[in-house]
Amino acid sequence: MKVAASLVLAAAAVVMATPASAQFAKPEDAIKYRQSVMFVMSQHFGRIGAMATDKAPYDAKAAVENAEIVAMMARLPWAGFVPGTDKIGNTRAKPEIWTEQVKFREHNEKLVGETQKLLAAAKTNNLDNLKAAFKPTAAACKSCHDDFRNK
Amino acid sequence: MKVAASLVLAAAAVVMATPASAQFAKPEDAIKYRQSVMFVMSQHFGRIGAMATDKAPYDAKAAVENAEIVAMMARLPWAGFVPGTDKIGNTRAKPEIWTEQVKFREHNEKLVGETQKLLAAAKTNNLDNLKAAFKPTAAACKSCHDDFRNK
Fold it and tell me: A76 contacts in B (CB within 8 Å)?
């Protein structure tokens, strides 16, 4: 539990250190960036999910490789939520992202923490551990989408 | 030089270990995946480029963070070049990607190797080292685009 707690704190520090400021040449790039990150993350998370739900054979090495990518990608999209980028382009971002910043950040930190635990689980080379860590990670994705993404 | 050579070999192993097989639910996902990876990589590489060309102040910590992302992303897009995905969707991929596989893989490996050297340079916390590593990395991007991407 101590390890898990410190991972979550470390994750929170990473998220907090990422300024949601204008690192992008134009607002459309911020949208494209966060959507690109989410898509890449979803592809690799989906491969872990297939193993964790017995839809694909368990490959311990592939699980670690995919979890490493997921854990890194989970830190990135938040910088793309530049204020005002719910009103332009093709996005499902809800305005609540900016009006409920504390809650949104809590969701962000939750995902970062869960993906780090997923990676740690993958590195044990044990499918049961992977399965156990997959569920809360998937739940972290879903709860943020439920609250902050339009259908 | 020995370190650099072993990095390149390790990079080559990573690329070779990535099957360009159907890891994607549909061919369009493979295109979206590689384009998403390239876009995320370009954003972070651009931030390093701004520092390396004196267009942005040097921030050693940010340089390392961006280089870590670039080095990881550089390993990924190749799996998205699934055979036949130059003929569908919105892509600038040239057919030569598949008819000149050896040359294409050499370009892939070159980029992976250069991005690993870029990360090593960033970690020295020395702007001159970053500048020195930035140029060959940018050249690796360009030479592959010149040969394998339509204008």
Answer: 40, 69
